[in-house]
Amino acid sequence: MAEKENFDLLDPFSTIDLDVASYADGVKSWAIGNREYVQPIKAFFNELIVGIESGLHAVPPVIMLVLLGLIAWQAAGRRVAVLVVVSMTVLGLLAPNAWGLAMTTLAIVISAVILCVLIGLPLGILAGKSNGFETSMRPVLDTMQTIPAFVYLVPVVMLIGIGNVSGVIVTIVFALPPLVRLTSLGIRGVNPSVVEAATAFGASPRQILWKVELPLATPTILAGVNQTIMLSLSMVVIASMISVKGFGNEVLRAMGRLDAGKALVGGLGIVILAIVLDRITQGLGKSGRERGHRHWWQGGPIGVSLRLIKRATSKATKLDLTEERTTP
Amino acid sequence: MSSNPDEPVIECRSLWKVFGAKAEEAMQAIQNEGLGKLEVRDRFNCVVGVQDASFSIAEGEIFCIMGLSGSGKSTLIRHVNRLIEPTAGEIVIAGEDINKLPARALRQLRAEKIGMVFQNMALMPHRTVRDNVVFSLEVRGVDEATRNHVASRAIDAVDLNGWDTKYPDELSGGMQQRVGLARAIAADPSILLMDEPFSALDPLIRRQLQDKFMALSAEMNKTTLFITHDLDEAIRIGDRIAIMKDGILVQVGTPEEIVTAPVDDYVADFVAGISKLDLISAGKIMEPVQSFESRNGPIDPSGWPIAHPDENLNQLVDISIDTNHPIIVTDQGRTVGIVTKQALLRGIQGRVDAGEMTHG
């Protein structure tokens, strides 16, 4: 009853203790108690991340450089391809181990982005279709974007343990919201009269989604993917606190030793990776009209090689024809 | 489905549409207490879009609904393929109440039986002209070879050969609407819904497309519901016209009936500026021979110009331009009436009092 005596109407909060913190601590002990149930799931995701990482490490840097250049050319054009190749060369020259660190970081980012798309796209479509779902999602997304990562770092580690999987989960929490928001925005932004026309010509809701809404929302959705990639990269330092390797770990260790040079290498590495990924994904997000209504396979290295093959085969058939004509 | 040729293809029976959260209650109040539009707005915060609309359209007929913006005509046309659900009343297409159709049957009806053209074209910007045109076939799962065949026929019908792999934004407005028309006729539906299809186009292109549409419509014998805010267009195209105002069909009739016998001042105002030359026939303005003779004595028809009762004012002017005599109107060799100069001039003004006594 001591509480009641000291209760002050003007300052009620100091005397009331709902003990939220200990409930939350209960979540932590629950997480520890249930560790074994999540282990198979963890193993699966770990497999995925390790697979991507070892794949990226297996490719010799020069070949990877060429591949990245070709991907950039296909996705965003020649200028971006040059920029990407130059940037990645600079990154490689930063330090002898920089390339390896970059591939590790890239593997984490790629895993996080793949999972973000798998989770975020359906959520975004639902949010775009249903006002109620959008309203209920909004506070969740706000929380995910603003809550300090350290708050959920501990429960995640308790449940799953340190390592790449936890790192990817922590990254997803922070990087998912823009994809959900922009997918919803893209679906809502589709011209309603086009949807009406599709309905009038007998399309089912599913056909409208796949044949009308998603294609028209693609540029906005890809802008969301771009934002997700950027945010994933900005999480690598925090993720390194739970033993994720790569540039983030480099920065963290340098900070501990006050090693400004090493921190700069790690920081620059992250920035260069960010620029490269940003330019490539921005190129993807151009609408059909901006690309002059060419299909993606009609431009870039694939377009060039397709044209070369076509020319070669047509030349060959022409030769055949002339041979036939000359030999009666 | 439609075995009886006299059965209307589209029938709209006392259709009501009330927009708003409390539409059902408002509808009850309208039916029980006879509330007006404004009372519904104030009491239920609902808007009455369509008010007790009834009409039927016969096979092959072009039925125009004419009204100013906000009169509810676009709302009304969207009930015919159930893009909008009515609050009360029913739409019957070929004997079937479409508001009772399950979703799958409704989609089939839309894809196979009803083609629609929109004022803002509503083409899909990410699809080529060809893929736009055969969209209704694609959603039905028709194979690509058939689709290409149908597409080229429809594109051919609207004179857009060679544009089939272009995208809508590479085409002019008039061409885009021709794609819209091709899309509507591609599946060879029996019904066409035209929602102000030519309103957004400039006058010359509009006239070209009207001609194109009338030629196609006559050739393919489509039952058409045509929405417009342009009375000239309605008169040019429609077999019958309905004038719509504030959600109510004020008058339904042939162009001639609308122009010569407007039911109220609103319709009269509309038709005031319309040229009657092609709409009023000799039969409407002629007077009986006896009444002419009672004023002017026995007639001596030698040398008088002769016309048929169906000939319009334009033709009557041509006939009588070189003479001062009245026109004799004969039907199958029998003299049925006389059109005086005065009656002709009054007829051009749109006043048909002279013939009214005998006609009808």
TrEMBL record, chain A:
Its main location: membrane. The chain crosses the membrane at residues 54-73, 80-99, 105-128, 149-176, 229-248, 260-277. Signal peptide: none annotated. GO terms for biological process: choline transport; glycine betaine transport. One of its GO terms (cellular component) is ATP-binding cassette (ABC) transporter complex. GO terms for molecular function: amine transmembrane transporter activity; carnitine transmembrane transporter activity. It is a multi-pass membrane protein. Keywords: Cell membrane, Membrane, Transmembrane, Transmembrane helix, Transport. Pfam families: BPD_transp_1 (PF00528). It is found in: Cell membrane. Residues 102-281 form the ABC transmembrane type-1 domain. SUPFAM superfamilies: MetI-like (SSF161098). PANTHER family: GLYCINE BETAINE/PROLINE BETAINE TRANSPORT SYSTEM PERMEASE PROTEIN PROW, GLYCINE BETAINE_PROLINE BETAINE TRANSPORT SYSTEM PERMEASE PROTEIN PROW. Belongs to the binding-protein-dependent transport system permease family. This is ABC transporter permease subunit. It comes from Pelagibius litoralis. The lineage of its organism: Bacteria, Pseudomonadati, Pseudomonadota, Alphaproteobacteria, Rhodospirillales.
